[in-house]
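Format notes (please read before filing issues)

Several people have asked whether sequences and structure tokens are stored in separate files. They are not. Every record keeps both together, in the order shown below: the sequence lines, then the token lines. Line labels are part of the format and must not be stripped during preprocessing.
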Amino acid sequence: MIEMQTEIGEETLRQVAALMMNAARTAPKARGVDRLEIALLTGDDRLRLAGKLREMGEESGRSFFIRDAENIAQAGAVVLIGSRYEPLGLNCGWCGFATCEAKALQAPAAPCAFNTNDLGIAVGSAVSVAADHRTDCRVLYSAGAAALAMNLLPGCRAVLALPLSATAKNPFFDRKPL
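Then the structure lines:
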């Protein structure tokens, strides 16, 4: 049997995505408390995300959302990593409030610095796996915003999207501004 890369590329992306998701889950977290949600989008769900992102770009006039929607449509898979904003009870003041209780009362939507740091560390771990497997990847805030609007990771207040590609030319770089 002969299998061409173009025939098994989707399966390969799913394998790399699964490893990325595992790396994100096992990344170090403040106090060992896991506030992350992690998901994989393929097929029609990926295209729905691209459609929502395009719609948001058209409504807001943010042309880079439309450009990024094309990237999501071109991707073979998209890993979503999100964080819930639940204070850890350290009363560190990094969020701008003296205590976690004060933050919760005065600005419940404000992120806990540790939750945001954990999200960044998890994303860094995930993209390193993509690089180790020579899979093209990019971190997109815009597609994460669309995932939030679609409530794809319930309970999360911040989401970043990592589209993946295994084509001859990386579609996520050398992008023309719109």
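For reference, the curators noted about this record: The mean pLDDT is 94. The chain is about 50% helix and 15% strand.
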